[in-house]
Specification:
The protein is of the alpha/beta class. The chain has a domain at about 330-550 and about 665-715: 3-Layer(aba) Sandwich (Rossmann fold), CATH 3.40.50.80. Helix content is about 50%, strand content about 10%. The chain is built from 23 helices and 14 strands. The protein has helices spanning about 1-30, 35-45, 65, 70-90, 130-155, 165-180, 185-190, 200-205, 210-240, 255-270, 275-280, 280-290, 290-305, 305-330, 385-395, 435-450, 480, 505-510, 545, 560-590, 600-630, 665-675, 690-705; strands at about 120, 130, 330-340, 345-350, 360-365, 375-380, 405-410, 425-430, 460-465, 490-500, 530-535, 655-660, 680-685, 710-715. The protein has a 6-stranded antiparallel β-sheet with strand order 5-11-7-3-4-6. It has a 6-stranded parallel β-sheet with strand order 12-10-9-8-13-14, sandwiched between helices. Helix 17 links the parallel strand 9 and strand 10 (about 490-500). Helix 1 (about 1-30) runs antiparallel to helix 4 (about 70-90), helix 5 packs antiparallel against helix 6 (about 165-180) and helix 13 runs antiparallel to helix 21 (about 600-630). About 45% of the residues are buried.
């Protein structure tokens, strides 16, 4: 009965959030049209009359921001997003208490999934599924539609009798204005995809790794529109001999200088986020992306508080998420041990529940499973850049005895319920790309043992490494221990390819690395990237034998009631401060003069008010929740370590090939013979060239294979 009640409440909350989001999007669609403007303009004027205000009551402070200046924008554009964030956080509150299990899906026969069909393989966008392409087309078409509708409406409203400049000059100015407005919707949704652990993403069933791609596309579309906006204005000002407007600052109208600064900041962030730049210098990408704070500020200064309020909903949800992640990452946890897998790869294990750099943060994928290893969280770290090279060298130089502590943020990820759709699972990993598959395999075995998943006919893992000692990572999986009732009947085939060694190298490297087992706390969600920075600690090596371990705390982001309370407190704090400032300053100033309040100053105050809401009001709730949680936090000791089995019982390759990479065409040709009338799930993680080759084969065999469907999933994780 209790379960049914919770299920009904969750359904109502999710449905309410979906309805609100649909209506919110519809408002953006209607905004450029005459019908919307005929209603909107009188409504704005009506809400600013003195009849709506009675300053003698303290509670009316909250009404002030709704009746003056940006009030209508707060109600129509900001409040719905805040409501959706709160509703979805509450909807997923009870689900997080349940252990994750892969449930049998009713979609086993579902063969035309646009999310798993690689429509485009190679090109500037790399691998794009049909669903990705539909999203990109909808985004571009919506932006073009917005510009066109705005432009047509503005041109039709030109009073040619009063025109003091050539008509084409006026049309050029209108085109410049409307190009800026066309990018506004992109700004409103820009931060949704990078709100890690977001319940809104879970509501829309968008995995985090796909959401980052959408964030990039939204950002590029926005910058293209705003670059056109800036260039057209520069051309117009040159023609009209008003180029000084480019660096002018006005108090009562839009200023060119603030827009120029915002555009330059946006272009810098885009340039440093290009794939090859981010890969070559992750720190450069990471730090320059923190300029988003200045980008938001100068966006507001350029357009004013009303436009700032229109995008504030997404910005505030992201800020709340960033606050909750910050609270989690401030708690140091102990790195309980290290396993050196090869000269370029290490494995770190933490207890779960910084001199490298205290500011360096890097994403890694979890290779453990919360269902199987209930007291530990394990990460695989491969040498790739200065940071990882430095930490691996430090550990190797100290023989694995170096004591580390870390700040951890996450983990983040998406439930892989859709695995149950497939009768055959094909995992293709390159190097550290094995990480997500280790976690997935453990959860699959756990779900089979729990009888919540029908065993797949075949599970095929194709694993490519540089040296054979990297194969020791497979020791972390022990099918007979995780799934004792069904292990003998499972058909798990591991095909290993060692590219930089010959067969004779195996005998020279058969003494596996020493392993120091590590601990972690229970109830951590599996999957996705974890952000970590580590620093050496001078503590005694024997410290952990005598004292309790510092474990990872569960993330506050995406944690139901806590997240909902912080979102509400942040919005309430913003509204309260805006009410006080509006009552004692802006409202009097606005009603005592026959002109608008300073546009830039209004936006700056709104920026400070939103910061106050998150950093003061929201942080107060987060601090209380975190304090309560820390008192109840699980504190492990070395005696509570989970048994994960011996290397002799672990997963072993059925074949090891030396000196070459896998011929995926041959792999798929052999696969096609045994998958007639089957739904095949192909998952790839590793170098992009490998992923593109696998995606191309999925595309080919989806068209030619006899009654078989090949569904492609990319598991790359990027910030």
């Amino acid at each position: 009965m209790e379960s049914a009640r919770h299920g009904g409440t969750k359904a109502v909350l999710k449905f309410s959030a979906i309805v609100v989001l649909v209506l919110w999007t519809f408002l953006w669609f209607m905004r450029p049209l005459d019908a919307y403007q005929k209603f909107w303009t009188p409504a704005q004027a009506q809400t600013r009359t003195k009849a709506y205000y009675n300053g003698k009551q303290l509670l009316k402070f909250l009404w002030i921001p709704l009746t003056t200046l940006a009030g209508p924008q707060i109600v129509v554009y900001c409040a719905p997003i805040i409501f959706a964030g709160i509703a979805t956080a509450l909807a997923y509150h009870h689900k997080r208490k349940q252990a994750f299990k892969i449930k049998n899906s009713s979609l086993r026969a579902f063969r035309s999934n646009p999310e798993t069909y690689p429509l485009f393989i190679r090109g500037p966008l790399s691998i794009v599924s049909a669903a990705d392409f539909l999203f990109l087309c909808a985004l571009v078409l919506f932006t073009v539609y917005t510009f066109t509708a705005y432009y047509i409406r503005s041109v039709n409203s030109i009073n040619r009798a009063k025109l003091r400049e050539p008509l084409w000059h006026k049309k050029l100015e209108i085109a410049a204005v409307e190009a800026g407005l066309a990018g506004l919707f992109c700004m409103a949704i820009l931060f949704f995809p990078v709100t890690r652990g977001s319940t809104l993403l879970r509501l829309l069933n968008i995995p985090f790794e796909h959401a980052v791609k959408y964030h990039i596309w939204i950002g590029i579309t926005m910058l293209v529109a705003w670059t056109v906006h800036g260039l057209l204005y520069i051309i117009y000002w040159i023609i009209e001999k008003k180029i000084h407007e480019l660096w002018a600052w006005h108090s009562d109208e839009i200023s060119g200088l603030s827009g120029l600064i915002a555009l330059i900041i946006g272009l810098v962030m885009w340039a440093t986020s290009i794939g090859w730049v981010r890969k070559a210098n992750f720190e450069l990408f990471y730090y320059t992306h923190h300029l988003y704070i200045l980008f938001i500020l100068f966006f507001g200064l350029h357009l004013g508080d009303r436009f700032y309020a229109m995008v504030l909903g997404g910005v505030m949800l992201f800020a709340v998420n960033r606050l909750l992640r910050f609270v989690q990452s401030r708690q140091k946890v102990d790195v309980m041990g290290v396993r050196v897998l090869s000269s370029e790869t290490i494995e770190l294990v933490f207890a779960k529940e910084p001199a490298i750099s205290k500011l360096d943060w890097h994403p890694f994928t979890v290779i453990s499973s919360s269902n199987v290893e209930t007291d530990r969280l394990t990460l695989l770290i491969k040498k790739n850049g200065d940071w990882t090279s430095k930490i691996i060298s430090m550990i190797q130089d100290n023989g694995g005895s170096l004591q580390l502590e870390a700040g951890i943020e996450g983990p983040y990820g998406h439930n892989l319920d859709y695995i149950s759709r497939y009768q055959v699972l094909v995992f293709i990993a390159g190097g550290s790309g094995i990480s997500p598959f280790l976690s997935m395999l453990k959860d699959i075995l756990y779900s089979i043992q729990a009888k919540s998943l029908t065993p797949p006919k075949d599970i095929i893992l194709v694993y490519t490494v540089k040296t054979s000692d990297e194969l020791h990572i497979l020791n972390s999986i022990t099918p007979a221990l995780i799934c004792p009732e069904f292990a003998h009947a499972l058909n798990i085939k591991v095909q290993a390819y060692v590219t930089r060694e010959q067969a004779a190298d195996l005998e020279q490297n058969n003494a596996g690395p020493k392993e120091i087992q590590l601990l972690k706390a229970p109830s951590i969600r599996k999957g996705g990237p974890v952000l970590i920075h580590a620093e050496p600690s001078p503590k005694s090596v024997t410290r952990y034998a005598a004292q309790q371990l510092r474990a990872i705390s569960p993330p506050l982001a995406g944690r139901g009631v806590v997240e909902a309370a912080v979102i509400f407190a942040s919005f309430f704090g913003f509204m309260f401060l805006a009410g006080i400032i509006g009552r004692f300053w802006i409202y009097r100033h606005y009603t005592s003069k026959d002109k608008d309040f300073d546009r830039s100053l209004g936006a700056f105050l709104a920026f400070l008010e939103s910061l106050f809401g998150v950093i003061i009001a929201g942080a107060a709730i987060a601090y209380v929740a975190n304090s309560v949680r820390r008192k109840k936090q699980w504190t492990p000791s070395p005696t509570t370590m989970t048994n994960v089995g011996s290397p002799e019982e672990s997963l072993k390759p059925v074949s090891v090939h030396y000196g070459h990479r896998p011929d995926f065409a041959s792999v798929f040709a052999g696969l096609a013979k045994s998958t007639i009338n089957m739904n095949v799930g192909v998952f790839a993680c590793g170098p992009m060239s490998m992923q593109e080759g696998v995606a191309a084969l999925c595309q080919e065999y989806r068209k030619t294979a006899e009654n078989a469907t090949y569904n492609y999933h990319s598991l790359n994780f990027d910030l």
